Amino acid sequence: MKLETFSIALLITVLFISCRLKEPVDTKSLTEADLYYSALSAVKGRNVAFLALFDSAGVMLGPHHTPIEGHAALTKLLLSHTDTTYMLTWNPSFAKVAQSGELGYTYGIYKLTDRKTKKLLDEGTYTTFWQKNTKGEWKAVLDTGNEGLK
User: Fold this and answer.
1) pLDDT, tens digit, for every residue of 115-127?
2) Which of 35, 92, 114, 133 is positioned for an S-S bond with 106, CB 3.0–4.6 A?
């Protein structure tokens, strides 16, 4: 009887521990996605990069503006402003992915640079919340930034 009680207790302990142990979630693919869109912005411009990175229902928050909700509204806003005179790039400082592997966020520093002179025009912080789409690609569902680190 003691062996049976011990076996049951051991089994319960093993099950409890195995349920509590979670594999660490890899953030590499999320960081790479964030860096990819920054590189796209450097080469093709902010407008192309933002239209590629946002989910169809994504939301962009910005100063002095109501939230920009959805791809159509984002397209209208972005294409109303030229992005040919400056270059926007960013670098994630941190990334975290939910245990499910389907949601995550990044934050870091962005830089706005004059394309001709390469002079730094502004730098600030950003946060992007991401979700994997049905193709397994990370897409931004919410993005915001704060101007002025100086």
Assistant:
1) 999 999 999 999 9
2) 92
